[in-house]
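Hi R.,

As promised on Friday, here is the backbone we talked about, encoded as structure tokens. Could you run it through your design pipeline when you get a chance and send me back a sequence?
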């Protein structure tokens, strides 16, 4: 009986480690080259977004005033109404891989993230969105895609 309880408990614990993806996060730039965050939520919601280098090194974090249930974009440097800065955007450094993703406060779901560098941002034009667009079947590497906002929105929930 103890073994069954242990296995059930372990299974519940391990099963809780996976956060379900309910959308897609993307990154872009505004007319001044400053970072812009994009979230397309396909089901349920996300509550905010974080930009980080590692799990313990956040570069910026933002919380929406109400749950995001569809599409939203905002300046990461100077978010407008509807966003609260949990941690102000730090200076981005060349040669560093940053990851931007969406999250829920109860950690039940997320918007799949995108990894980028400052060189990637420099190549983007306003209105372009960079996001992870699948996996290369032969190498299992994430494929980074750059498209317009409309295509990003359409692909995110396809």
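Update: got your reply. Pasting your designed sequence below so it's all in one thread:
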């Amino acid at each position: 009986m103890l073994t069954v309880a242990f296995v059930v408990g372990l299974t519940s614990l391990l099963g809780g480690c996976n956060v379900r993806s309910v959308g897609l996060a993307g990154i872009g730039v505004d007319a001044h080259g400053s970072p812009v965050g994009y979230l397309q939520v396909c089901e349920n919601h996300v509550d905010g977004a974080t930009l980080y280098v590692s799990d313990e090194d956040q570069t910026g974090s933002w919380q929406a005033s109400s749950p995001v249930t569809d599409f939203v974009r905002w300046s990461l440097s100077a978010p407008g109404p509807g966003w609260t800065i949990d941690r102000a955007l730090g200076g981005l450094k060349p040669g560093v891989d940053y990851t931007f993703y969406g999250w829920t406060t109860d950690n039940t779901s997320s918007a799949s993230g995108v990894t980028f560098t400052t060189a990637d941002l420099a190549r983007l034009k306003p209105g372009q969105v960079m996001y992870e667009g699948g996996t290369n079947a032969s190498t299992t590497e994430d494929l980074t895609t750059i498209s317009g906002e409309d295509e990003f929105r359409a692909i995110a929930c396809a």
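One thing I noticed while checking it: Residues 21-156 form one domain.

Thanks again,
M.
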